[in-house]
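Thought: the user asked what NAD-dependent epimerase/dehydratase family protein looks like in 3D. I have the sequence; next I should run the structure tool and report back without guessing.
Action: structure_tool
Action Input:
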Amino acid sequence: MRALVVGANGFLGSHLVDALAAAGHDVTAFDRFSTDRRAFDADVATLRGDFADAEAVARAVAGHDRVFHFVSSTTPATAGSDPVLDVRGNVIPSIALLRACAEEGVSRVYFASSGGAVYGDLGASPVHEDMSPHPVSPYGIGKLTVESYLGYFARTAGLASVALRISNPYGPRQRATHGQGLIPIALRAIAAGEPVLRYGDGSMVRDYLYVEDAIRMIVSIVEAEPEHLVYNIGSGRGTTVNEVISGLASVTGIEPRVEQRDQPPTFVQASVLDISRFTAEFGGPEFTPLDEGLERTWASMRR
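Observation:
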């Protein structure tokens, strides 16, 4: 398989590059590489380019039979503050990428969508892929829009695709500076002696998934002939924000100061993914216990 990973130097993308290369695939890493430092360890071909540059993306797609769309130029916070930026920076370039894949004859595209953001507040937990999404944030609306374009290009150009609705991944290489992810942001605050910001009373529930577990699930789909167009990628278990903060105190040995903020209206109260579709098709994945994952993440930050 000749695989192109778009967003290869990011959190999920870099781990995916390593996993695909370790499995023996011919991998090309496409990213801006703005820091000149590779986040991944594998010795693979690299292409420097901007996701917003449609011509650069089309050149990168050429010659590849699988394309992994793992780039996002915004976070839930930045998309919420400027929805137009999210459309310009994510939705429009995604359409250009899919068009290039269709024209090149790519056999399948894998899109890193978002479980919590796409489903929104459905009033049920865990949520299954057959439930109708109801995103309440610009970030989730953008992700679902790209998923809709996957369907469009499948109908009009025969471009096969899989949308990966990923829960709340965490682990090494996740940058707290990007303003996304409770765990890296809280760990950075604890290390700096700063208060941990908690939105609401800490009862919000999320489906936290260690990054290596997420990538193993994704690779299982890649190395098979998937039966469905959408898969939830999660642990199927919910953990409250307060439980995470308690776990961070345990692994760091530091009791953090917690500063409470109002819960924004676009924050979903509970988001846990039903992974029965995945387990029925690919078998039950092994999951890293949260305390062990937090310990590994903390250790990676101290290196």
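Thought: the tool returned a structure. Summarizing for the user.
Final Answer: Structure for NAD-dependent epimerase/dehydratase family protein predicted. The longest strand covers residues 108-114. The longest helix spans residues 83-104.
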